[in-house]
Every structure is written in C-alpha cells, then in structure tokens.
Design a protein that fits this description.
25 strands; rod-shaped
Length: 387
C-alpha cells in the first residue's frame, strides 16, 4: 500500500494517523500524489472563512462571486457574461436574488423556452419530457399547476379533473372524420349517435328509434320512427302552428303511396283522393241579366259526401229589385226552396254571401236569379263540395 506525500513534505501517516491509499469526493490519487479533481460522493461545503478561493478568473469569497474576465466557455459555471464583475446584484425572467444567491422564482419578462433535450424536468408530481407532461398524483390545489378554473367553451373543472360540460362561448366544430359520435345515458338507455350519413336517437329499452338519413349526392332526407313495443306515431307541434315550405319543387308534402283505404275523419288527404271524390263543381258568372233564370243546377251523386259550400255575389246595376235564391233537399229529406242568399234594391250595391249546407245524396242543388222588371244585375254563383 503506497504512502501519499503532500506538498508540505510531511508523511501522510505522520502524527500516528496512518497512511492514505484512497482519495475521493473531489480528490484523486495519481501515483503517490493527491490531486483536486473527481466526482463528489456527498454533499460538500467549502467555506472561504475570510479567504478568497480563486478558480481561474473567478473569485469566491464569503459574500460574493466575482469574475475578472469572461471565460471561453461561460457555461462551465454560470452565464458569466450576464454576471457583472462586481458580483450578482440582480436577477429576472424567472429568477430572483436572495442575499448573494440566485434562486428559481419570479416573473417571466420574455418568452422563454426550456427544452428537456431527452431529459426529464420534474416539478413536484409533474414530469415534463420532450413529448408530454404527466402528473403522478392529483395535487391538493390543481391551480398550483395550471389555471384549471379558466376552462370554458363546453369544458368545466370538477376538483382536479377537466370534464366535458358547460356553456359554449364560441362557434365550435367537432369533426367526426368518418367515425361516429355517441352520447348515451346508461340509466335510461337513451343514445344519440352522429354518423357521416345519418343521425340516430333511440331508447333501446323501450324500443323507440328515430333516424334521420342524409344521403350524399341525392339531397334526400328521411325521418323514420320505429317502435317495437309502442304505438307507432309521428307528430309535429308548434305554438304558432306548423308550416311546410317547399322552395325547391313547390309540391309541399307528398305521399309515396295511396293511403286513402285507411283514411279516418282526421286524415290529411291526398290530391288524387280529392279529385276523384269531388266531381264537377258547378259555377256561373254572368253580367247584365234583366230576366229571372236558373243560374246553377248541380246534381249530387249518390256516393258523394253531402256537405257543400255555396258562394254567391250579386251586383245591382239599376233600379228595381233582384235576388239569388237557393233550393235543395237537406240530409233529412226535407225540401228547402227559395231561400234568399242575396237581395238588393239599390243601384250600384254589392252583396256577397257564403253558406254551407248538408244535402241528401242523389238530389240536386239549384241557384236561381229572381229579378224585377227594369232591374239589371251581375250575379255570380259557385257550388263546391267540402270533404
């Protein structure tokens, strides 16, 4: 085992201390010489104790660190080009001064980037790498890390968690990009699903299912209601009434088949059904008539419903009296004749009239003009079937 000789010429084993064969904690053994240099193996303090420790251009005393010149590579110690020769007097951009120490802490004064460069930066339970930031445990106060209370536009904070829920404060787009988005309530088994070509809403427990299909390229939309355990129905409600607007084909609502065989008293009927059951609507519009005559006679088919609307108008051209009278057989079989609908005597006067009647099938409706001598009138009459 070698004996280490120090520069003062004394044997390391002098004074009964024995020999030295190992040096560490910043010291190395080269041959028989102990030299400054090597890894620290424990926390180590060098106290100037009123003296000056000089390392190249850097002087360390009990009170400060000074540099007589900027080193070739200033990162060997600190950013010495930022350190005045008089010592550390201030710090900013995330650093602060405590006595003669520069400490992490303070306001950022410019945009600052800290790059992990394949290493980990640990801030309490938060670990930041080049790719991500992770948290090993939820902090007691989540705002110690970030402003979680500032989440909005459909997001909210619950304790240390960010949750979906809250008011939208801006126009927001969620692109499904060929996938489906499903919102479900496990308690009621209600699902709302958005897919690229359709929107679905269903309750899988009760079997109620609504689907809106929007097929690309055809500009068609279909609304389907399927109920496996309930009466199938489809309803539109509105406080101000419902209006159908068709600005493309101007056809309004159109059925894809003839449903007249199952019509009820409240069915919304189709045009073909109306046309096939109304028959001919009798009408007459004349002018300058000076003699009494029949204006309209409409024969009621046996199979046609028996409610009719009578519209008439009478314009008196000259002195004298004229009137339009109605004759028909009501649904009880009673003959009603000469019922006056419009009657005028003053020249230039106009009188319109509308009346609805129930007639007996297989009879006739007659509208007659009764005019006095010297009178001239312009009558107009219409008989219209009401379904």
């Amino acid at each position: 085992m070698p004996t280490v000789i120090f520069n003062d010429g004394q044997n390391s084993g002098g004074g009964g201390g024995g020999t030295v064969d190992t040096l560490n904690n910043g010291l190395t053994l080269t041959g028989t010489n102990g030299q400054l240099g090597g890894d620290l193996v424990q926390d180590t303090t060098i106290t100037p104790n009123g003296n000056t420790l000089s390392i190249g251009p850097v002087d360390i005393t009990d009170g400060k660190i000074t540099s007589a010149a900027t080193p070739t590579n200033p990162t060997d110690l600190v950013r010495l080009e930022d350190l005045p020769a008089a010592g550390l007097s201030g710090a900013d951009n995330g650093l602060s001064v405590a006595g003669s120490n520069a400490e992490l802490g303070g306001n950022l004064t410019k945009n600052t980037t800290v790059t992990p460069n394949t290493h980990n930066l640990n801030l309490g339970p938060v670990t930041i790498t080049d790719a991500e930031a992770t948290c090993s445990a939820a902090p007691a106060n989540p705002t110690d890390i970030m402003r979680l209370e500032d989440f909005d536009n459909g997001l909210s904070v619950n304790g240390s968690k960010i949750e979906l829920g809250g008011n939208l404060v801006a126009g927001t787009l969620i692109g499904i990009a060929g996938h489906s988005l499903e919102l479900s309530d496990a308690a009621s088994a209600t699902h709302f699903t958005i897919q690229p070509t359709q929107v679905e809403m269903d309750n899988r427990t009760s079997g109620v299912y609504v689907q809106i299909d929007v097929t690309s390229g055809t500009a068609n939309m279909s609304l389907e209601v399927i109920a496996t355990t309930h009466t199938q129905s489809f309803s539109l409600t509105g406080a101000g009434g419902m209006m159908v607007t068709d600005t493309v084909n101007n056809k309004g609502l159109e059925g894809d088949a003839d449903f007249s065989a199952a019509y009820t008293a409240n069915s919304y009927v189709q045009k073909t059904y109306v046309d096939s059951n109304r028959g001919s609507v009798a009408s007459a519009k004349l002018s300058g008539i000076s003699a009494s005559q029949n204006l309209v006679t409409y024969n009621i088919p046996v199979s046609t419903p028996s409610m009719y609307r009578i519209n008439c108008a009478l314009v008196q051209r000259a002195v004298g009296a004229s009137s339009i009278t109605l004759t028909y057989v009501d649904s009880a079989g009673n003959s009603r004749a000469g019922i006056s609908l419009a009657s005028l005597a003053a020249p230039g006067a106009t009188q319109p009239a509308t009346v609805c009647i129930y007639c007996q099938n297989g009879t006739a409706i007659s509208l007659d003009l009764v005019i006095a001598a010297g009178a001239v009138a312009d009558p107009a009459c219409t008989v219209e079937l009401i379904l």
